[in-house]
Amino acid sequence: MRAFADITEALSALAVEVPSWAYGNSGTRFKVFGSPGTPRTVEEKVADAATVHRFTGLAPSVALHIPWDLVDDFGALRRNAEDLGVRIGTINSNTFQDDDYKLGALTHTDPKIRQKAIDHHFECIDVMHATGSRDLKIWLAEGTNYPGQGDLRARQDRLHEGLSTIYDRLADDQRLVLEYKFFEPAFYHTDVPDWGTSYVQVAALGERAMVCLDTGHHAPGTNIEFIVAQLLRLGKLGSFDFNSRFYADDDLIVGAADPYQLYRILVEVVRGGGYGPGSDVALMLDQCHNIEKKIPGQIRSVLNVQEMLARALLLDREALAAAQEEGDVLLANEIFMDAFYTDVRADLAHWREERGLPGDPMRAYVGSGHQERIEDERVGGTQAGWG
Amino acid sequence: MRAFADITEALSALAVEVPSWAYGNSGTRFKVFGSPGTPRTVEEKVADAATVHRFTGLAPSVALHIPWDLVDDFGALRRNAEDLGVRIGTINSNTFQDDDYKLGALTHTDPKIRQKAIDHHFECIDVMHATGSRDLKIWLAEGTNYPGQGDLRARQDRLHEGLSTIYDRLADDQRLVLEYKFFEPAFYHTDVPDWGTSYVQVAALGERAMVCLDTGHHAPGTNIEFIVAQLLRLGKLGSFDFNSRFYADDDLIVGAADPYQLYRILVEVVRGGGYGPGSDVALMLDQCHNIEKKIPGQIRSVLNVQEMLARALLLDREALAAAQEEGDVLLANEIFMDAFYTDVRADLAHWREERGLPGDPMRAYVGSGHQERIEDERVGGTQAGWG
Amino acid sequence: MRAFADITEALSALAVEVPSWAYGNSGTRFKVFGSPGTPRTVEEKVADAATVHRFTGLAPSVALHIPWDLVDDFGALRRNAEDLGVRIGTINSNTFQDDDYKLGALTHTDPKIRQKAIDHHFECIDVMHATGSRDLKIWLAEGTNYPGQGDLRARQDRLHEGLSTIYDRLADDQRLVLEYKFFEPAFYHTDVPDWGTSYVQVAALGERAMVCLDTGHHAPGTNIEFIVAQLLRLGKLGSFDFNSRFYADDDLIVGAADPYQLYRILVEVVRGGGYGPGSDVALMLDQCHNIEKKIPGQIRSVLNVQEMLARALLLDREALAAAQEEGDVLLANEIFMDAFYTDVRADLAHWREERGLPGDPMRAYVGSGHQERIEDERVGGTQAGWG
Amino acid sequence: MRAFADITEALSALAVEVPSWAYGNSGTRFKVFGSPGTPRTVEEKVADAATVHRFTGLAPSVALHIPWDLVDDFGALRRNAEDLGVRIGTINSNTFQDDDYKLGALTHTDPKIRQKAIDHHFECIDVMHATGSRDLKIWLAEGTNYPGQGDLRARQDRLHEGLSTIYDRLADDQRLVLEYKFFEPAFYHTDVPDWGTSYVQVAALGERAMVCLDTGHHAPGTNIEFIVAQLLRLGKLGSFDFNSRFYADDDLIVGAADPYQLYRILVEVVRGGGYGPGSDVALMLDQCHNIEKKIPGQIRSVLNVQEMLARALLLDREALAAAQEEGDVLLANEIFMDAFYTDVRADLAHWREERGLPGDPMRAYVGSGHQERIEDERVGGTQAGWG
């Protein structure tokens, strides 16, 4: 295995984008529990993101969701974020909460509703210009609940038409990333259900259209690291939405359900050039903290990515390649697991302290009194959520 | 195959309980779409249930959910229902929407919260006395989202304690039915995740505690008809919550996703004595009509149960048993599918007309103007939903 | 719904290719049960395929598997088949039963083993020339059992190289169809696990390289008809391997596990131009009859495809399109299910009799004495199987 | 977290039973690859088991499978094993490889075949007397492939009858453990598919009938540690068959697919009293080494159990209970994962060396020349496998 000292430089490149909505309330269709200290405004969400970055040094940008994060002056929001030490990152569109979109948005049979969805994306691109964002991320909730409800094929063609129109509006330094999802909220078919569909749709658009891989959006048993390897091979992996799941799109803390899977994914990211200088792959979180505290939930999450990335970087690729070449199955697997089983936490604590960060950001946050402070201050108003 | 004439008497026994909440709005965590004509009150929900019964003759009772259906005077509600030609059926409790239940109800570590959940069930039993309901149905949303969050074993013991206390409060002609569910809203573990757990919990209570089988609450690939057969064999199948699913607990119209599975389930119901005189198994719907119209969605659902039950009754069990005895795999399967592939719709239309019902309840409803009427009348107020 | 009379001409175009190996013994890793009457030679397998065609008129060609079906003189085999009224169809390669392929074939790290696998495909192409076969079907069993065992990315590159070499060897009127499979026999990763991978690999080859969709090769819950629609849209659906499954790649009789799914698939086939004159999509079976009799198992299978295709053709697409356009979810679904619930069996029996075929091929086969005859005749020798 | 020094005594109690068949060849339905050095006799399998124990000190007993391990003189086999330092453990029956069992064994419609299956178990009990084995393990491959093929309910009743007869034959110090399995080799229904069925069947037998939990025999997404906790709570967990899986019953090396799941399982084992003095739970492996070397595959496996057990023992249960009581979700999860992320390998190496064992058994085995020796010696004869 490689020594920790050999990976410290590579580790320094890690930046994990956090989603503004992770700081607001979320839940299931059964209940959204509120929690003290939840932001009431976009500015408070950005402040929470900045807090995560202050304690970890890992989260220099925050993704916005339109219209949840609509403000009058995005230039001011951008300056506000920069004053707090973070940037505005990816802009996420929303075509699933307007009554018009009940049966579809970009794929709707009615051209007026399709145009409305396209116009919404134009508005998002306007926001990108104001915030300096590179990526427009499109997750489409569309699909059908019953066989026969829609024409699967025609919807795919309308999807292409809508995406083309949006893509053409982007500036030359902007990208479109198209997320896929196995199911939910549609329960019979989803218009972009798998990486293959996202790939063929973005491949038909052009070079700056890429696939977004959300780790919670696959069929049971799917080998996600294979998809990572394939998309990097095809030059079409645009970004990650990290989270974890036991069942469906549970949106749990990344690494919480299957840490070894996270390791395998990050090994392929590094293997395929998806990390570090020269890579444009955006690493983001997309999570819900339904029952746990939100800021420390996000701190835990970026630390999980960092710890697992350290293990992936420690993997002795030369020894592994030799064992693979030899066909020594047990040795190759042992080398692979050796890095995974290495406890990197003490080294990382030391590394953080050298950089002026708290060695244990979780304990530092708890000890800082910040949580109590926001719980005291953020009284009244309407807590942010998915709406 | 048996002739349709031979099953008409058996068919007459069919009664499918409808859930009051099917007439209110429902949706996903992403969006609850409203729809014109949605009830604003419990009385309007009961009226909608009565409408379904009027058009089909299949839905003589309506299940209530407490507190969604709390009224001041349940006696009046009962009389109101009876005036409309339906009864109040199962009472469903709710321990998942109060802030106190964020980390559990009957399984919570805090005895005060457990007592609160028990008291809620006592209140439900009071309602049952007023409405004349036989069954208290308990679906517990409890569980944990992260490994380590709770003590799986201790929670199971507390669950037993709580259920015992509730069971002891029931009158001699009342039953407790305990529903199980694979996951959601909890994402790591659920306290009653499978039929085995529900069975051992109710077996520890007594004779009037039974299992409720919701057809959407199983792991992918689960053979549900096997569970039906097993629970009937054990004398512990209390009731069904019918719906259908492609992925998770989609709560789609029963029979919409896999009609052949519904057939297989009903074959085992009939085989095991779960249908007809002498059976106490309650057949209920538990569905959401997120995007389709609600009253016709329910009409479609009870018709689907009726059509599939007719096929199950048509199955030539003597011929099947002979083929099974012979070990003739292809012939046994052919006999089994013969009834399934039989188109019973014309015979059923005739059967309905003979009983003074519309031959095609779906077309009759559309032609009746009822939907337009309630859309006109039900303006203002707050549409009913899950809260 | 359309009338049966309106679809008889379209129905006449149906041809389902049967696999030679369906007539041999098959089983699980636990046991291969033998059965009386099983063929001992390739010629006897072809004779069984011809028997299926004689009773149904639906199975005019038989697929071969090399080396299971190696004969000295393929020209003679071809003439023999034609004398019996059937053609030799798709040639299937095999790179999973030689000891050299334990850790891979086209993806192996050792170039000598890769060349051996390529040479095997060259041999298959030679067979195609002798048999007049159009399609070379490649299912690759390769993959790894343990994380780290192989380099996912490098294997993909080697796969491309191998496929290119094979593709270049094909004549202008020959095609390469690449099958994908979720898992088995590899248990950690499979080199062609999903339609996306098959698509990007064949798209990199050229116009005559296509995807083969085996209905049993998907993750739980996968919407297969969506993939059918997408591949037809992309012009890359080459062929089907029909069978059915409850769990993994069960290889049961097509339509036996989920008849409604088969209907939905065939609706998309027809919708997307994958059936009838002008379509090059090959409809094949790929099944195992582990416990049921093999010839009637195949008769049942081609009948299942025919019956379900009839339903798909009966679908009233104009009415469906209107309901979809209206956004009438319930009506669209009802129109869709109307054709499914139609019992086409009597009409099909009549249709067969008009064409000089037995109205009920299953009964006709049982009554013909053919099964007893082959059980008497085929004594001694080694029964055919997977080797 | 607890210190390693605090768990060394508890660690010493670990004994993992190995299966004789792990040393023979195994594979998939597509191919069984042979490998040099594979045992030809039962004695050689026992010798291989003893080798695993010699290098690890963890595997003091070996399970046999009848008839694969039938010998003329089981007393001699027992003495032979004891001379090599191991015991004969569990006796496994086999009712899936005789042609008579094609459609069932204990559940067959034919009473003669049922009696034959019962007699086979009597024979196994005779073996147990000769070998001094405590446990008779029954895994039933029975089920059906097609709906309608068998009567689910009647089969369950016949199963009870057969098991009762077998159970009654056991001596007072012998146990019956009944394994359940989701699917395979039956593809529509399995007669003992889940823990609930195994539980109700063994509960109907008596105190010495217990459930066997094979970690690879569940539906996708099943929370296995919950079942462990439940069965321990009910006093009915008899034994484990450890292995790991990504998809179906892959039978991979335990801990190879999801190490965190193995940790969670072992945490519940310890929590529920399933480990250590006073516990009768048998920890066994049931694995296949299809492509990797078999003896080191088994060494790796018992080491994986040991390493993960060490982590489970290190868990600070007092701190965890306090965090659970507090409802501190993040802290509880962090405490839970803290032990998992601890690298116990150096401490365990030291612990082994103190006990006269090699610190790194994998390297020690490779360096010992043993593998080369058996590859040289075991030439000729028929390699052992599943038959």
What distinguishing features does this structure have?
11% strand, alpha/beta, 10 strands, globular, two-stranded antiparallel ribbon, eight-stranded parallel beta sheet, TIM Barrel
How would you describe the overall organization of this protein?
Chain A is α/β, with parallel strands linked by helices and 387 residues long. The first copy, chain A, has one domain (13-314): TIM Barrel (Alpha-Beta Barrel), CATH 3.20.20. Helices cover 44% and strands 11% of the residues of chain A. Chain A has helices at residues 8-11, 42-56, 74-83, 111-131, 152-169, 195-203, 224-234, 259-271, 294-314, 317-326, 329-341, 345-354, 361-368, 370-377, and strands at 18-19, 61-65, 87-92, 135-138, 143-144, 175-179, 189-190, 209-214, 237-242, 282-285. In chain A, the strands form two sheets. An eight-stranded parallel β-sheet of chain A has the order 1-2-3-4-6-8-9-10. In chain A, helix 7 runs parallel beside helix 8 (259-271). Chain A is globular. Chains in contact: A-B, A-C, A-D, B-C, B-D, C-D. At the A-C interface, helix 5, strand 7, helix 6, helix 7 and helix 8 of A face helix 5, strand 7, helix 6, helix 7 and helix 8 of C.
